[in-house]
Write a structure and sequence with these properties.
With 153 residues, the chain is mostly helical. 72% of the residues lie in helices and 0% in strands. α1 runs antiparallel to α2 and α2 packs across α3. The longest helix is centred in the middle third of the chain and has 24 residues. The protein is globular and about 55 Å long. The model has no long low-confidence stretch (mean pLDDT 89).
């Protein structure tokens, strides 16, 4: 697959489409994404071009925030707000790579642990550093951490 447009451009294009389609949820979600992208680009030391890896991290963070907010709303019996958050999460997830299954991730992490000769919890940082980089956008950090912890215990 050849990506001619980077994620920043893709989101910008989709934002225009959402406006034309009068898709309120996509519009609101993509405006938030674009705002986060622009903030990242204007940070000190940032280049004018937002790398897709960085853009993916931003989207992942927004997905996590959306899911967390939805869970809080559920606890407060505000299903209307929870549904709105989850609808936005759905829009965001279209931009993430296909998520790895738990078994697939565990197999990959076992290989990584062997490659790094990691044997105990004191190797956790070393493994997590590489794992979060290697599986960025493909698996949630929480799941990676949980599996690595199991493998090193």
């Amino acid at each position: 697959l050849i990506h001619i447009m980077n994620l920043f451009d893709t989101v910008s294009e989709d934002l225009k489409k959402a406006m034309k389609a009068k898709d309120k949820i996509a519009l609101q979600t993509l405006r938030n994404v674009k705002k986060a992208f622009i903030e990242a680009k204007t940070q000190t030391g940032a280049s004018d071009i937002l790398a897709d890896e960085e853009a993916l991290r931003i989207i992942q963070k927004l997905v996590k925030q959306g899911k967390d907010s939805a869970a809080i709303y559920e606890e407060q019996n505000r299903t209307d707000l929870a549904e709105e958050e989850l609808a936005q999460v759905k829009v965001l997830e279209q931009y993430l790579p296909k998520q790895m299954g738990t078994d697939e991730l565990k197999n990959e992490l076992e290989i990584l642990v062997k490659e790094l000769n990691a044997t105990s919890m004191k190797d956790m940082g070393k493994v997590m550093g590489l794992a979060t980089q290697k599986f960025a956008g493909k698996a949630e950090g929480k799941l990676i951490s949980q599996i690595v912890r199991e493998l090193l215990s």
